[in-house]
Fold this sequence. Notes:
- The protein is α/β, with parallel strands linked by helices.
- It contains 6 helices and 9 strands, in the order E-E-E-H-E-E-H-E-H-H-H-E-H-E-E.
- It has a 5-stranded parallel sheet with strand order 6-7-8-3-9, with helices on both faces. Strands 2-1-4-5 form a 4-stranded antiparallel sheet, with helices on one face.
- The termini are far apart.
Amino acid sequence: MPVARLAFEGLSRRFDRLVVLDRVSGKVESGGLFAVRGPNGSGKSTLLRCLAGLLAPDRGRVVAVEDGRALANDERRRRVGLLAPDIAFYDELSVSENLELVARLRGLPPASGRAVAERLGLPAARPWRALSSGMRQRLRWAFAVLHRPRLLLLDEPFQNLDDDGERIARALLDEHLENGGLAVAASPVSLPLPRISGELRLDR
């Protein structure tokens, strides 16, 4: 399988006078996981949004390579799988309807979310507004992996999950890495994660 790679060099980002990221760097290749640690407010989510192409850094650059080709910023946005605590879905739509909509937006068959919903133990007919915090996190996992991305960006990936939910999520992550994918995972605490190939500590 061709190597995928993500590298970021000298990334800086401020909001008004507040410096959130100050010349941070890191890299990860196929089969590896890059861990980002730090307390709340240290810039972990901002970093992931810069890596996903959702937020432009003030300085520095992000290079994502798939199949020997560097991805343009808009292409990177479409191809990454992002899991973040603030990702929400349509209140009135069921789990299956929300995933069907996401699949259509990604150009996938509408039914493609069914298998991943079953894998994550999601209640297909229940609307987003009626989901527990743990089931909402499972749906965010489904959103992130639905299109089988090579690059996963995980912001507090096991937040609110019960033991069974965390077991399923960890199995998905293990399979992703074993199949040549790569991941960046951010958490305020140190988590036992597979195949850590690099680590960055952010401070306030």
